[in-house]
Design goal:
Arc Repressor Mutant, subunit A, alpha+beta, 7 helices, 29% helix
Amino acid sequence: MVDLCLMILRVMLYLGRVGKDTISIKKITSCIPSQYQSKVLPTVEELVQLGMIDKTSDSKISIKRERRTDVCNLMDPVPDPVIKSIKPIEDTIPKSFETEPFLVTEGSHRVKGVVDKYAFHKSKFDSKIVVYLVSDNRKKSTINLGSIHHRNSLYRRALLEIDAKFGTKVFTKAMMNQLGSSIVGNRQPTKALIDIMIYEGYVIQIDEKHFMRTPKPPPAEEGLIIER
């Protein structure tokens, strides 16, 4: 039940259910993938016995305030695995973007013994983000996420569509195909979008395949901007 314990604690932590801020077991169960839902109640009881959470008489639970740090230490908010040493070839990065990536993640597939890496770079002048798909230290392709503030950016359109399609329900990368080909295209934009949304706190990863939107709202938009 260790994985399910972590799922429950992760959801509670990101929903801010600590101390007096409680959540019903029914609501927690609805946030957990269906194949695990029958085991939520005994797992909650196990967490109570471990002293990680409190349970009220009306079946509401919260993380014990004094155990919040312990729970945080169990969580990893950055997409896994993250490789901090990767540096795409400098002369392939436009001068308008930072040379050093602020985030680098690994692809889930190995091709000819090499795992692709996703290097996330910020613009020097605004909030745009570009992702370079790097293989064997060579840039293979570019994914323009744009700015979360710009209404027609890939990043913002994807986040708003996730809100519209899934709301607070659990979803998978495969389910993101429902967002439309203009957003997901193939698995590369999907991977990049999930990674940046986790990094910036818009999405949490419940387990290897399942994700859920956090309460963090999209920022105010800055109008119609043509992404370049």
